[in-house]
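Aim 2 progress update. The chain analyzed this quarter is reproduced below.
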Amino acid sequence: MIYKDDQSSIQGFLEDTSNLKIGKTPGVFFPETVTEIAELLKGAIKEHRRFTIAGNGTGTTGGRIPLGDYVISMQKFDRIGQPIPYAIDKASMTVQSGALLDTVQKKAEQSGWFYPPDPTEKLCFIGSTIANNSSGARSFKYGATRKHISRILIVLPQGDVLNLSRGSCMADKNGSFRLNLPLAGEIAFQRAQYSMPETSKHNAGYFSEEGMDLIDLFIGSEGTLGIIAEADLMLIPLPKNVISSLVYFRDFDDLFRFNLLLKDRKHALLPRAIEFFDKNSLTFLAEKYAKVPAESEGAIFFEQETTVEREENDLDKLFEEMEACNAMIDQSWMALDGNDRAKLREFRHALPLLVNDWLSKQQESKISTDMAVPEGRFLELFDFYKSACEKLSFVYIIFGHIGNAHVHLNILPRNREEFLQAKSLYRKFIGKALALGGTLSAEHGIGKLKAEYLVEMYHESGIREMARIKKCLDPFLVLNIGNIIPAAYLETETQ
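Predicted structure tokens:
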């Protein structure tokens, strides 16, 4: 096993895309086998070590940044198995946790299979997407990562290796789990006693529901309960064709009506993705794409899986709904072949690059939201975002997953005063989203940056529930301290 402690060579492990600047570590381990991970954890107490688990640095919440602990890098765990069909419309693929999502998806597609989860950042480790229960645009149809994992191989904090298949360990009628492990012995604990928000996307804190599967506790736990080394992914047949479109509107009410039409399950169309760009987002994009109409108040990006036989009927239905909602049909963008879809994907992903280029000329970093609310409360949150930003004359954009009532607000401060105003406003946004029955984080997770805000969502009682579970599985507090659960709750909470 490789170990590095030269600070110049491990500097990259002290950062991710969160812009958190407080990372420090004595050194980084690069295990290549499950046995090597287990040995590190077995020796943690004797060696007086704690560990932070490192993905590929694409996270936005500081989860992989060590605060003085040793780092375990998963980059050597990069093997990907072949898809193995087990039904006419189902296959399984075994992957190690350090394999890149992009490589995994391409390998599945080469064999005619499809792995639906689609986080925007394709260079993330697949294990990180499982630990984070990641989602993306296609979550509107397919849900988050949790729905596509049938097995995980996880190394528990005391060095036990748990090969956990879906359905093999379910909570009993009291919500309790019981494990008998070679090293840790018998562990019994109850699922967290709190309710989950009624949102279609949620990624904040430990999963809990009546009769839950133990695998779902580890998925989304951000490496605080164990290290995911390997997983079996659930694949479906690769869609034969996809219609992609970018539909512009002069009026936001028309845009929102179109959004609701697309989501109506009674209609013939069943989109896999429904994304939103506000007028300010389009203004940024117009710097690179001259055909963005200046009079548009917003746009919907839409993806529809189809076949050669159905494509004409699906297009007819789409144009009918565009016309009914007063869409700017002549200016809208239809992508029906691979090249056009690639260009439209490039358009979608150009926004963050253009924003980052603008921010590079400023002195402050952006303030971003990741809240989602129940469908019927979306407009209230959207209006709150918009009016609050305009009242303070902020530069801002709103974009993202309108299909899941989950859009990202990015405030782009021009000076320190605006940054501090935006930080203060962020807490008000949290309060508003939670008051509407929403979630603090719909897809990016909690990590270290948002742990303090999680208390506002679950209150102290809910955080203590998470701490109770953490200390049952990790009694010596070895893994990812500072992620999800504020450290103070682990210090005071009894097992």
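The mean pLDDT is 94. The first helix runs from residue 7 to 10. These observations will guide the mutagenesis experiments scheduled for the next reporting period.
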